[in-house]
Amino acid sequence: MQRFYITTPIYYVTDAPHVGTAYCTVNADAMARWHRLRGDETLFLTGTDEHGQKVADTAAKNNLSPQEWTDRTSARFVEAWKLLNISNDDFIRTTEERHTKSVQSFLSTIYDNGFIYKGTYVGPYCVDCEDYYTAENLLDGNCPVHGRPVIEMEEENWFFRLSAFQDRLLAHFESHPDFTTPETKRNEALSFIRSGLRDISITRTSISWGVPVPWDDRHVFYVWYDALINYLTAIGYGTEKDEMAQWWPHSHHLIGKEIIRFHSVWWPAMCMAAGIEPPHHVQVHGWLLVGGQKLSKSMGNDGPVRLGEIAPATLVDEFGVDAVRYYLLRNTALGSDGEFSIESVTARYNTDLANMLGNLVARVCAVVNTKCASVGPAPSPDSELLQFAHVTIDEVSSAWENFEPHIALEKTWTLIGAANAHLENFAPWKMEPGEAIDRVMGDALEAIRIISVLITPAMPDTADEIRRRIGLGAVTAQGDWNTLRTATYPGGLAVQKGEPLFPRIRSAA
RNA sequence: AGCGGCGUAGCUCAGGUGGUUAGAGCACACGGCUCAUAAUCGUGGUGUCGCGGGUUCGACUCCCGCCGCCGCUACCA
Question: What is the ipTM score, two decimals?
Fold first, then answer.
């Protein structure tokens, strides 16, 4: 039996869920669903990152305690993922006790191993921001946010000896060419490492909303060094329920390109320092751009882009959950940036879902109703359509395997096209009821059965609804995949047409 | 500035260790069909493969230069 452990980043609770976080989460979900379908033992983790100065500030602005604020915002993520039919097995919050413990345990191990030392951080500091800047980020020597002079500030910090891991990291990249994918992102991480690594400060004395440093109670850990460890907390790092050995060798971190450095440089080095293997794989995705720009809160609700209009809840409300999931998975190659627009969602919806998939199911069911007395016939053993379907299964399978959902769906849709062409070829609506028509419709139903399994990772509800209409039960985790090629549509089942699965959208939104 | 990437049909993008007529989807046009959600099926591309030069029998594919866009360059989720 194979195992598959996939994670999203834990989302920072200064912000509400938006299309960008939904994009990452839906992709991770589809991967998890694919692996469950294959029968792999699967663990899918997401959650929220709740420490740090910014959270404390945001809470204060809203007249709430940090804990109240994080409770509230974290719940919004839980709610959004429920709406998107996200099948996470666990939802971690960094303010949970299990996490505090594992952070302290993990970093204490690094400390004991001699990779953490006390030092002084010196740099330009803006009092208003309560934050350090690098010299090149200053505007005429002033704070880029406040435009006021910065002061040279010193702070006592605990430092992680990142510099000690440069060679080991390079060796790891060398011996694990697929550690970070796609390759362009791998190169980015590599060139960063090659340019020389400096030690990094990992604690703060200036704030208190964080995980206390066990060996020095005046410090809390800087939020990143707390956050990354969530991936280990969830599998019981350092506790009695330690499942490290089972899951960690099969770990996949799905992340946005803005946090490559943390996941592909800091994190493996920290793991090495703590005496464990680095994560197995970091899969990087690009950004969804709106009007060529990264999604961000600063777009607000009054500019040309109104974030409210593209909030996950709004989209689900307008297009339906599976259509949104399909769009996010299909429209953009994982790893590239993609342009997001309501117009393109509408186009995908009408072309791929209404015209192709929905209409295929509708026309097949309609013909079976009128020509086969609403009883679905069995397929012929070796039709051209079935042969094509089997090739498609292989292509789709390897695309999912390689973290290429857009290709998996593109290939799946060629089968839908082939099924439509199959109907045109034989024109069963012109035939008299009988053996010939049964063969044509049986082959079509068999194609639909296979399609229903192949779309399951992307559109689980639609898959089950399609199967219900042709008399089949819901897709089961392992049974349907194992028998996808060998079993066929059994025939003799009641077929019902039902309402359009994806009613066409007339006007561009 | 350094390092990296990108620039291919109206749009989104594939592709090529250099070799006959450069690909897909969408959009568009025409034809077929009328079972189906005015859906579907078939057919249709005179594109300087960013610009200039070089290597070569031959370059869109390799090399050099240039232009344009983007990413990373250390404490920013």
Answer: 0.88
